[in-house]
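Page header: ASSEMBLY MODEL / two components / 197 residues total.
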Amino acid sequence: MTFWQSHGPEIAWLLAGLALITVWTIIRRWRDR
Amino acid sequence: MQSRLFSLRGAIYTLILFLSAVLAHFLACGTFISPSRFCLEGLFIGTLLYFGLNRELEGPRLALLALVTQAAVHVILGGMVMNSSRMLAWHAVFALLSYWAIRLSEKFWHKGLLFVLPINSARRLLVSLISTNSQPAVLYCKKFLTLWIDRSAHSLRAPPLLAV
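Prediction written out in full:
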Protein backbone atom coordinates (compact mmCIF):
# COMPACT_ATOMS: atom_id res chain seq x y z
CA MET A 1 0.00 0.00 0.00
CA THR A 2 1.45 3.34 -0.98
CA PHE A 3 1.51 6.40 1.24
CA TRP A 4 -1.33 8.07 -0.65
CA GLN A 5 -3.48 4.96 -0.54
CA SER A 6 -3.17 4.64 3.22
CA HIS A 7 -3.10 8.31 4.24
CA GLY A 8 -4.96 9.89 1.33
CA PRO A 9 -8.37 10.06 3.10
CA GLU A 10 -7.09 11.81 6.19
CA ILE A 11 -5.02 14.30 4.17
CA ALA A 12 -8.10 14.96 2.04
CA TRP A 13 -10.13 15.43 5.24
CA LEU A 14 -7.63 17.96 6.55
CA LEU A 15 -7.45 19.81 3.23
CA ALA A 16 -11.25 19.91 2.98
CA GLY A 17 -11.43 21.39 6.48
CA LEU A 18 -8.77 23.98 5.66
CA ALA A 19 -10.58 24.88 2.42
CA LEU A 20 -13.85 25.35 4.30
CA ILE A 21 -12.17 27.59 6.87
CA THR A 22 -10.52 29.61 4.09
CA VAL A 23 -13.86 30.12 2.34
CA TRP A 24 -15.43 31.09 5.66
CA THR A 25 -12.67 33.63 6.32
CA ILE A 26 -13.02 35.14 2.83
CA ILE A 27 -16.81 35.44 3.20
CA ARG A 28 -16.48 37.11 6.61
CA ARG A 29 -13.86 39.60 5.36
CA TRP A 30 -15.99 40.39 2.31
CA ARG A 31 -19.05 40.88 4.53
CA ASP A 32 -17.20 43.08 7.07
CA ARG A 33 -15.39 45.29 4.55
CA MET B 1 -5.87 38.88 37.98
CA GLN B 2 -5.90 39.30 34.22
CA SER B 3 -3.06 36.83 33.62
CA ARG B 4 -4.50 34.35 36.14
CA LEU B 5 -7.85 34.55 34.39
CA PHE B 6 -6.29 33.90 31.01
CA SER B 7 -4.25 30.96 32.20
CA LEU B 8 -7.40 29.40 33.66
CA ARG B 9 -9.21 30.06 30.39
CA GLY B 10 -6.34 28.52 28.42
CA ALA B 11 -6.25 25.44 30.66
CA ILE B 12 -9.98 24.87 30.24
CA TYR B 13 -9.78 25.20 26.46
CA THR B 14 -6.76 22.92 26.29
CA LEU B 15 -8.69 20.33 28.27
CA ILE B 16 -11.80 20.67 26.07
CA LEU B 17 -9.80 20.33 22.84
CA PHE B 18 -7.63 17.51 24.12
CA LEU B 19 -10.46 15.45 25.59
CA SER B 20 -12.70 15.88 22.56
CA ALA B 21 -9.92 14.76 20.22
CA VAL B 22 -8.92 11.79 22.39
CA LEU B 23 -12.56 10.75 22.77
CA ALA B 24 -13.07 10.91 19.00
CA HIS B 25 -10.00 8.75 18.47
CA PHE B 26 -11.13 6.33 21.16
CA LEU B 27 -14.71 6.03 19.84
CA ALA B 28 -13.40 5.24 16.38
CA CYS B 29 -11.31 2.44 17.95
CA GLY B 30 -8.04 4.16 17.18
CA THR B 31 -4.81 3.00 18.80
CA PHE B 32 -2.70 5.12 21.14
CA ILE B 33 0.92 4.41 20.44
CA SER B 34 2.61 5.62 23.61
CA PRO B 35 1.69 7.43 26.84
CA SER B 36 4.51 9.97 26.48
CA ARG B 37 2.78 11.23 23.33
CA PHE B 38 -0.08 12.43 25.55
CA CYS B 39 2.26 14.98 27.13
CA LEU B 40 3.53 16.01 23.70
CA GLU B 41 -0.04 16.45 22.47
CA GLY B 42 -1.02 18.48 25.55
CA LEU B 43 2.04 20.68 25.08
CA PHE B 44 1.17 21.16 21.41
CA ILE B 45 -2.40 22.27 22.14
CA GLY B 46 -1.21 24.48 25.00
CA THR B 47 1.28 26.21 22.68
CA LEU B 48 -1.38 26.71 20.01
CA LEU B 49 -3.72 28.28 22.55
CA TYR B 50 -0.97 30.41 24.09
CA PHE B 51 -0.55 32.19 20.76
CA GLY B 52 -4.26 32.20 19.95
CA LEU B 53 -5.73 33.47 23.20
CA ASN B 54 -4.88 37.15 22.87
CA ARG B 55 -8.23 37.73 21.15
CA GLU B 56 -11.69 36.26 21.51
CA LEU B 57 -11.75 32.79 19.99
CA GLU B 58 -14.52 32.64 17.43
CA GLY B 59 -15.26 31.95 13.78
CA PRO B 60 -12.58 30.61 11.46
CA ARG B 61 -9.76 30.98 14.03
CA LEU B 62 -11.53 28.70 16.46
CA ALA B 63 -12.52 26.30 13.68
CA LEU B 64 -8.87 26.11 12.58
CA LEU B 65 -7.80 25.41 16.15
CA ALA B 66 -10.35 22.60 16.51
CA LEU B 67 -9.37 21.10 13.14
CA VAL B 68 -5.62 21.24 13.82
CA THR B 69 -6.13 19.72 17.27
CA GLN B 70 -8.13 16.80 15.87
CA ALA B 71 -5.55 16.21 13.16
CA ALA B 72 -2.70 16.47 15.67
CA VAL B 73 -4.26 13.93 18.03
CA HIS B 74 -4.76 11.56 15.12
CA VAL B 75 -1.17 11.97 13.97
CA ILE B 76 0.70 12.34 17.28
CA LEU B 77 -1.29 9.96 19.46
CA GLY B 78 -2.37 7.42 16.87
CA GLY B 79 0.64 7.63 14.59
CA MET B 80 -1.71 7.72 11.58
CA VAL B 81 -2.18 3.99 11.99
CA MET B 82 -5.91 3.73 11.54
CA ASN B 83 -7.55 5.59 8.69
CA SER B 84 -11.17 4.71 8.17
CA SER B 85 -14.15 6.79 7.24
CA ARG B 86 -15.47 6.11 10.75
CA MET B 87 -12.34 7.69 12.26
CA LEU B 88 -12.62 10.76 10.04
CA ALA B 89 -16.33 11.11 10.81
CA TRP B 90 -15.77 10.95 14.58
CA HIS B 91 -12.97 13.50 14.36
CA ALA B 92 -15.23 15.80 12.32
CA VAL B 93 -18.08 15.43 14.82
CA PHE B 94 -15.83 16.14 17.79
CA ALA B 95 -14.20 19.09 16.03
CA LEU B 96 -17.70 20.60 15.74
CA LEU B 97 -18.52 19.74 19.36
CA SER B 98 -15.31 21.29 20.71
CA TYR B 99 -15.95 24.38 18.55
CA TRP B 100 -19.41 24.69 20.06
CA ALA B 101 -18.18 24.11 23.64
CA ILE B 102 -15.44 26.73 23.36
CA ARG B 103 -17.84 29.18 21.73
CA LEU B 104 -20.19 28.86 24.71
CA SER B 105 -17.27 29.13 27.09
CA GLU B 106 -16.03 32.30 25.36
CA LYS B 107 -19.47 33.84 25.75
CA PHE B 108 -19.28 33.02 29.43
CA TRP B 109 -15.83 34.62 29.84
CA HIS B 110 -16.89 37.75 27.99
CA LYS B 111 -20.38 38.23 29.34
CA GLY B 112 -19.91 36.68 32.76
CA LEU B 113 -22.98 36.88 34.96
CA LEU B 114 -25.19 38.08 32.15
CA PHE B 115 -24.60 34.79 30.33
CA VAL B 116 -25.16 32.54 33.34
CA LEU B 117 -28.22 34.17 34.87
CA PRO B 118 -31.42 35.06 33.07
CA ILE B 119 -31.11 38.57 31.67
CA ASN B 120 -33.57 40.33 34.01
CA SER B 121 -32.36 38.91 37.29
CA ALA B 122 -28.73 39.40 36.28
CA ARG B 123 -29.38 43.03 35.44
CA ARG B 124 -31.20 43.57 38.71
CA LEU B 125 -28.32 42.01 40.60
CA LEU B 126 -25.73 44.08 38.76
CA VAL B 127 -27.73 47.27 39.28
CA SER B 128 -28.03 46.60 42.99
CA LEU B 129 -24.31 45.85 43.24
CA ILE B 130 -22.87 48.57 41.03
CA SER B 131 -25.18 51.58 40.95
CA THR B 132 -25.43 52.17 44.66
CA ASN B 133 -27.14 55.53 44.19
CA SER B 134 -30.53 53.91 44.30
CA GLN B 135 -29.95 52.29 47.69
CA PRO B 136 -31.87 53.96 50.55
CA ALA B 137 -28.90 53.59 52.92
CA VAL B 138 -26.64 55.38 50.46
CA LEU B 139 -29.20 58.13 49.99
CA TYR B 140 -29.44 58.53 53.76
CA CYS B 141 -25.64 58.70 54.14
CA LYS B 142 -25.42 61.24 51.34
CA LYS B 143 -28.09 63.38 52.96
CA PHE B 144 -26.43 63.12 56.36
CA LEU B 145 -23.00 64.00 54.96
CA THR B 146 -24.39 66.97 53.02
CA LEU B 147 -26.13 68.26 56.12
CA TRP B 148 -23.05 67.67 58.26
CA ILE B 149 -20.79 69.48 55.81
CA ASP B 150 -23.27 72.35 55.63
CA ARG B 151 -23.51 72.56 59.37
CA SER B 152 -19.75 72.30 59.80
CA ALA B 153 -19.17 75.02 57.29
CA HIS B 154 -21.51 77.42 59.01
CA SER B 155 -20.96 76.47 62.63
CA LEU B 156 -18.08 77.29 64.93
CA ARG B 157 -17.71 80.70 63.45
CA ALA B 158 -18.92 82.21 66.63
CA PRO B 159 -17.42 81.55 70.05
CA PRO B 160 -18.18 77.96 71.17
CA LEU B 161 -20.95 78.95 73.52
CA LEU B 162 -22.93 80.60 70.74
CA ALA B 163 -22.35 77.94 68.12
CA VAL B 164 -25.40 75.91 67.18
